[in-house]
Amino acid sequence: MSNTVILDTSRLPRVAGRQINGPNCYKSFADNSPKGKSNPEIRSVWLIPGPNHDIPDKDIEVLQKSDVGKAQLASGAITIIRPNNLGDDATATGTSMDYDEPTALMIISGSEDEEWLELSKNKEDRVAVRQAIVNQLDAIEKRLAVLAKNVE
Q: Measured between alpha carbons, how far is 54 from 97 in angstroms, rounded to an integer?
């Protein structure tokens, strides 16, 4: 199953007086690689700040086993959101449709993933959620226009 994992960098500890704002890597030993083994298999997961979409269960396990991941889950810096709007026979769509309306709105408000937002917009039939997607895409476009203007 695909999940959404939110990395809230404002809840991460400051390092040398600075806030960590970039991607974070989480590592743990694979289930079949005991720590005492000479060449254990290590699995890793990268998260970017904000919502990270389509995170498989095996990567959720890495987060939950990683010492850093455990600490960040406990502090609320990482939030795992599992699809909660699926019927008994429905399969996940990988879009906002997989979440109830309040959860979908929360995920959309922090998402910078234009591909996920566009896919969600094309499948979404809830008016408030669809409007939130359109608003978020517009906000991203405006931020990118400002950045492009500053580069010129």
A: 13
Query: 3-state DSSP call for residue 116?
Result: helix
Please, what is the Cα angle at 11 between 8 and 15, to 5 degrees? 115
Q: Which residues contact 78 (CB under 8 A, 6 or more apart)?
A: 5, 6, 7, 8, 47, 63, 69, 72
Q: Print the SS3 string covering 38-99.
A: CCCCEEEEEECCEEEEEEEHHHHHHHHHCHHHHHHHHHCCEEEECCCCCCCCCCCCCCHHHC
* Whole-number pLDDT of residue 37: 60
- pLDDT tens by residue, 72-93: 999 999 999 998 877 666 778 8
Give the full edge-to-edge strand order of the sheet including 2-7: 50-56, 2-7, 78-81
Quickly tell me which residue has 């492009």 as its tokens. 148
